[in-house]
């Protein structure tokens, strides 16, 4: 079930195996996390919307480890319209692409390669449910900061 799939992708498998697991999980991901009452996308989007001092429609955001686009849906509901996303799983990117919410979606295995963006390009960067060893490693935080505008 869903709990087993969550445990598998957060387990000790090597990166290629974890990416394969995510590719295979993409079609059931949203159903599984809904059953587990996963609320991180809603909470993260609400926090970001609260922190923005101006209307969010013009803010440029990067959704790291975007998965199927759950965070993008929540950000869009709160008025954010300029969303880009990256993920290491081709299957997840394909699902995210089907939402129509992203301007750009690119493959990126953060921690092994840099983000495909220039310095200080984004007003904010989100990483929801993926920051930690075995996913987006904490060593990648400087790379997240590199592409985020100061302040």
TrEMBL record:
Protein name: MET27 protein
Pfam families: Methyltransf_25
Residue span, Methyltransferase domain: 62-151
PANTHER family tied to this protein: METHYLTRANSFERASE, METHYLTRANSFERASE-LIKE PROTEIN 27
Gene this chain is encoded by: Mettl27
Gene3D superfamilies assigned: Vaccinia Virus protein VP39
InterPro entries: Methyltransf_25, SAM-dependent_MTases_sf
